[in-house]
Amino acid sequence: MKRKNDNSKSIEAVPAEALFKQKTLTGNVDVRVDGSILSLTHLDKVYWPDDGYTKGDLLKYYFNVAEYNLPYLKDRPLILKRFPNGIAAQPFFQHDLENHPDFVETVALDMEVGHTVHYAVCNNLASLLYLANLGTIPQNPWMSRTDDVHKPDWIALDLDPKKTDFTVVCEVAVTIKALLDDLGLKAYPKTSGSSGIHIYIPIKRAYDFDQTVSFADMIATVISNENPQIATRERMPAKRKKGQVYVDHLQNSYGKSIAGPYSVREKPGAPVSAPLEWDEVEKAKISIRDFTIETMPKRLARIGDLFKAVLNGKQSLERATEKIKRRLH
Fold first, then answer.
1. Residue 302: left (phi > 0), alpha (psi -120 to 50), or beta?
2. pTM given for the model
3. Nearest 5°: CA angle at 38, between 34 and 41?
């Protein structure tokens, strides 16, 4: 892990707590966050034109949920998807982060022969606000941490409906839960924040990405084989049958990422990737639009972090792998 050197600013800055208590944020403001000073710019720029939400609203949300959001970003390389002109304009992906302040950490990874990438790592509130100020709406962490990037902490299944009703997504999720229960594995659901559901299976850091992709592939195969009317492994939407949900296991590959818990998404309404209780999924009476930058802080204050078990769940895959192989034959 390395830090970029940065010349500290000797300027007056507004405490972040005071800034984000304001109802409306405008212009450019220098803020102090835990001893660091950063410049927040164009706070009144509209990022969600249909809803009127601004860049300032995005920053305020991340400030308010940071204690819940940061544990899922800590020590993980991030792939930045930047929307400097809001969701109606063309975004771009940024893997290599240069010329950043010293409170933002990076990790240098050799992604190809002769090509080193310096990925951003978000380990503190100042970094989170800095990245959001760049127009990084979703926070997309790797599934592994910087001390051993080849050993993931969890497996994630991405249920992608593509115009299929969300109740069917919930049905597929419950079917996956039943399979994982049979395999002796605990899993935790959250909305993708877009149109689907993510299911996380926390694991020991004893497996590489080839092993986790293989295990996720077996889950997707069993689910699609046994429930062909609602589940498929077909990636191409045009080739899917009507009503099928794609069980995407490929996001478990090395260097891939998905939107983390409590991440804002670049969709109308400013939805958030919201951890769920299985009871909510089973009842299928929820909507992606129930969880937004306005409603998520209130939900967190009421029920807390439903996903925290993911951070400490160290499950083994050996027995589950043997059981699912028998189910495939």
1. alpha
2. 0.94
3. 140
Tell me if 71 sits within 8 A of 65, measured CB to CB: no
Task: Judge whether 261 and 198 are in contact, CB under 8 Å.
Answer: no
Two tokens at 244?
């099928």
pLDDT of residue 11: 56
Q: Is residue 206 pLDDT above 80, yes or no?
A: yes
Show me where the domains of the chain are located: 2-141, 151-328
DSSP H stretches of helix in the chain: 16-19, 55-69, 125-133, 166-183, 209-226, 278-283, 296-303, 309-312, 318-328
pLDDT of residue 237: 85
- Mean pLDDT score, 90-111: 95
245-283 pLDDT, tens digit each: 999 999 999 999 999 999 999 999 999 999 999 999 999
Cβ proximity of 231 and 175 under 8 Å = yes
What is residue 62's DSSP assignment?
H
Separation CA 277–CA 69 (nearest Å): 18
* CATH topology classification for 2-141: DNA primase, PRIM domain (3.90.920)
C-alpha to C-alpha distance for 115 and 133, rounded to whole angstroms: 27
For the segment(s) 151-328, the CATH number from 3.90.1150.180, 3.90.920.10, 3.90.76.10, 3.40.1390.30 is 3.90.920.10
Return the percentage of the chain with pLDDT > 70, whole number.
96
Give the C-alpha separation, 37 to 15, whole Å.
9
Instruction: Pull the structure tokens for residue 235.
Output: 């990636």
Distance in angstroms (rounded) separating the CA atoms of residues 316 and 207: 9
Spatial separation of the C-alpha atoms in residues 157 and 229, rounded to whole Å:
19
Distance CA 162, CA 179 (A): 23
